Amino acid sequence: MTNRVHKRTRDDHASEVAEDYVEAIGDKIAANGVCRSMDLVQEFSVTHATVNNTVARLQRDGLVTTQPYQPIELTAAGKRLATAARKRHEIVKSFLEAMGVSSRTAAIDSEGIEHHVSKETLQAMKKILKNGWPATER
């Protein structure tokens, strides 16, 4: 059991950066019509080299397309990943707020939790958000 738990955590860590980047790219495109490398430099407070390396990996993995000095576009796979990451993020943030966590703290905490929450836990969070807390827990 322990090996499976640790493997899942390692796998989650491996996908975190990709999910954060495609989510941010999707958000920038939605807000501004385009996403440029500089937007990501500012968003993540990292260097141009870091953004360029990460975008190159995303491009290699089929999540984005771009050309030198051109905006970054999400592929269909990138859009699906960004949408899934955004939904998980919003569910976790809303759940934390429903527990009484401040909006500011919920926004910060959900940024990490969203990558590690299981489908089962996410479904339970959605159920509680929809139906309220179980009577046995009140």
From TrEMBL:
Function: In the presence of manganese, represses expression of mntH and mntS. Up-regulates expression of mntP.
Record-given protein name: Transcriptional regulator MntR
SUPFAM superfamilies: Iron-dependent repressor protein, dimerization domain, Winged helix' DNA-binding domain
Swiss-Prot/TrEMBL keywords: Activator, Cytoplasm, DNA-binding, Manganese, Repressor, Transcription, Transcription regulation
High-level lineage: Bacteria, Pseudomonadati, Planctomycetota, Planctomycetia, Pirellulales
Family listed: Belongs to the DtxR/MntR family.
Record Gene3D superfamilies: Iron dependent repressor, metal binding and dimerisation domain (1.10.60.10), Winged helix-like DNA-binding domain superfamily/Winged helix DNA-binding domain (1.10.10.10)
Pfam family, one: Fe_dep_repress
Entry's localization field: Cytoplasm
GO CC term, one of those recorded: cytoplasm
GO molecular function, one term: DNA binding
Native source organism of the sequence: Roseimaritima multifibrata
NCBIfam families: PRK11050.1 (NF008273)
InterPro entries: DtxR_MntR_Metal-Reg, Fe_dep_repressor, Fe_dep_repressor_sf, HTH_DTXR, Iron_dep_repressor, WH-like_DNA-bd_sf, WH_DNA-bd_sf
Domain HTH dtxR-type: 14-75
Keyword DNA-binding: yes
The keyword Ligase belongs to this UniProt entry's keyword annotation: no
Domain of life per record: Bacteria
Assembly with partners or alone: Homodimer.
